[in-house]
Amino acid sequence: MAELVLTLSCPDRVGIVHAVAAYLHEAGCNVLDSQQFADRTVAGSSRFFMRVHVETLPAGGSDPASYDDLYSGFTPVAAEFAMDWELHDVAVRPRVLIMVSKAGHCLNDLLYRRAAESLRIDIPLVVGNHRDLEPLATAHGVAFEHVPVDSEPLSVQRAEGRVLDLVSELSIDFVVLARYMRILSPDLCAKLAGRIINIHHSFLPSFKGARPYQQAHAHGVKLIGATAHYVTADLDEGPIIEQEVARVDHTSSPEDLAAIGRDAERVALARAVRWHAEHRVLLHGRRTVIFK
Questions:
Q1: How far is the C-alpha of 97 from the C-alpha of 245, rounded, in Å?
Q2: Tag placement on the chain: N or C end, fewer CB within 10 Å?
Q3: Which pLDDT belongs to residue 61?
Q4: What's 65's DSSP letter?
């Protein structure tokens, strides 16, 4: 037996759930979990989203249906409803490339969760534009590659070219920017659309630029947090996956805010990575639909 996850989105109409359920039943699948959502906020363009987790079962003494059988068999159903869809084998762990700079709290958290099996991903490589976090990656048994980059266009082109080569060579499913402090080019964002997750303090847009925690302290904020989102060419404005917040008050120094913010960043990023790895996140324009 195998476990598979089917995700889909399409224009909303009568019969989608029936068609999906009927096909899975005929293919000998047992539904373990099913979630759906219809977005009707835009008049005349309602869109339907669905995630189904199934297990394949033997039928009539024969072997359970294979991934290839299920994929090819579902294709006509998907075509009938104009679906954007994917089918994933749960046993196959997504391969993740993590990119870092100097702050190690998010990288350390992801590596720990991977080792503890609470985050079912493979991390074949950590890429850093500085070498500061190489010992941390090495201590967790993960290879590290230094890919330096500065503001010169040729340097950016060379570094991003290397990243794309690594994504191809290592069969990377998605990239995580674990406090990687360089802006990615629109070209790279386009080539890896929906496959790069970033973590950022949620002070944007109120506190853009340097020293955001000092700015927040100066303004006397009562809430701080972090936002995990997909990377697009619009800086820090990609579709939001998860946000974590914490209450603070006048007694909190800028250093206190930064420490609380680091905790929020770790939590929000870990959730976003796990949901993406478990195929729970469906893109919906500038938004996301998340089946938890």
A1: 26
A2: C
A3: 64
A4: P
Sheet containing strand 47-56, strands side by side: 29-39, 47-56, 3-11, 84-89
- Which tokens sit at 107? 């990288």
- Is the distance from CB of 56 to CB of 32 less than 8 angstroms? no
> Which amino acid, residue 171?
S
Query: Tens digit of pLDDT for each residue in 164-212?
Result: 999 999 999 999 999 999 999 999 999 999 999 999 887 655 677 778 8
DSSP state of 141: T
Beta partners for 54?
A: 4, 31
Catalytic one of 122, 236, 256, 263: 236
CA 41 to chain centre: 25
Angle at 151 between CA 155 and CA 187, to 5 degrees: 65
SS3 193: coil
Alpha-carbon distance of 211 to 129, in angstroms, equals 21
Pairing, β 240-247 against β 84-89: unpaired
Q: Which helix (H) or strand (E) holds 262?
A: helix 254-277
Is 236 an active-site residue? Answer: yes
